[in-house]
Amino acid sequence: MINLTDVSFGYRKQKQVLHGISLDIKPGLIYGLLGKNGEGKTTLLNIMCGLLFPDSGTCRVFDEMPEKRKVVFLQKIFILPEEISLPDVTVSDYINMYAPFYPTFSNERLRSCVESFELNMDDAILRLSLGQKKRVAITLALAANTQVLFMDEPTNGLDIPSKSIFRKLLGSFVSEDQSIVISTHQVRDLESLIDSVIILDNKEIVFNKSLDEISEKLNFRTIEANELALYSELSPAGKMGVVRNDSGEKSHVSLELLFNATISSKDIIKQIFNA
Ligand code: ADP
């Protein structure tokens, strides 16, 4: 669906933000694009939807070059930016204004989102709180029902119940021919939602594996006092950490532990997955 080969990009010539990015995004999966603030997640999403152009390398989405911004391409992708700017109209006028741009727009999905997020279609958007505006923007993004959906930090501004509604809605919507890429630095928000993890660090993709592969190679569990772990941290439940999965038994993948382990022991993690 999406293929990037050796993509590099910098806003200024001397300062690269992304270096040698190669990536394959397949249909039917939800990808979590993780990275600290300022690592280039938004930049990468903007390259994939044609808002920024690579300095070198190639990016193809449905075999099209995103930067050409053809109508047939734009109809099939939706990007929900981190900072949303919404017009001074009612929720219903806003949805009616944008729905016609998307031939795949689903009224059924719209109804589900409106009901779950408890939106009032007659509300004036600019009088809504930040979290309510975000729910409106997410509703349009999900109802557009495009083949590719990019979401940049979608849970920022959402309260805890809305985050859980968001996860449920998205999880129930993804179909076999759709790809979803969600960027976040709040890794816990994507727990139990994503199928595949991409970690961006220091201009490069340092990790790109499916949850199945992760739970096959790593265990996430309590660490004994004198046990060596790839990464561990103290939590109210004791010392939690990541170890090699030598037993073959699969554990629930903690995205936060995985992220911290990858950032702190890149080479060891790479070795384990390449073995
Ligand atoms: P993330 O989404 O991971 O927080 P960004 O892609 O927004 O990261 O930014 C990556 C880097 O590029 C940061 O150092 C940021 O300051 C810089 N950057 C982002 N947008 C611009 C811009 N329009 N002009 C110059 N530098 C930018």
Provide structural commentary.
The protein is α/β, with parallel strands linked by helices and 275 residues long. Helix content is 31%, strand content 26%. It has 9 helices and 12 strands. Strands 5-6-7-3-8-9 form a 6-stranded mixed sheet, with helices on both faces. The chain has a 3-stranded antiparallel sheet with strand order 2-1-4, with helices on one face. Strands 10-12-11 form a 3-stranded antiparallel sheet. Strand 11 (231-235) and strand 12 (238-244) form a beta hairpin. The relative contact order is 0.15. The chain binds adenosine-5'-diphosphate. Adenosine-5'-diphosphate binds at residues 11, 17, 35, 37-43.
What is the number of E strands? Answer: 12
Strand content: 25-35%
Number of helices: 9
Low-confidence stretches: none
Strands, helices and their partners?
Layout: E1 2-9, E2 18-25, E3 30-34, H1 41-48, E4 56-61, H2 71-74, E5 77-80, H3 91-98, H4 107-116, H5 130-143, E6 148-152, H6 160-173, E7 179-184, E8 196-201, E9 204-210, H7 211-217, E10 218-222, E11 231-235, E12 238-244, H8 255-264, H9 266-274
Parallel strand pairs: 3-7, 3-8, 5-6, 6-7
Antiparallel strand pairs: 1-2, 1-4, 8-9, 10-12, 11-12
Helix pairs in contact: 4-5, 8-9
This protein binds adenosine-5'-diphosphate (ADP).
Adenosine-5'-diphosphate binds next to α1.
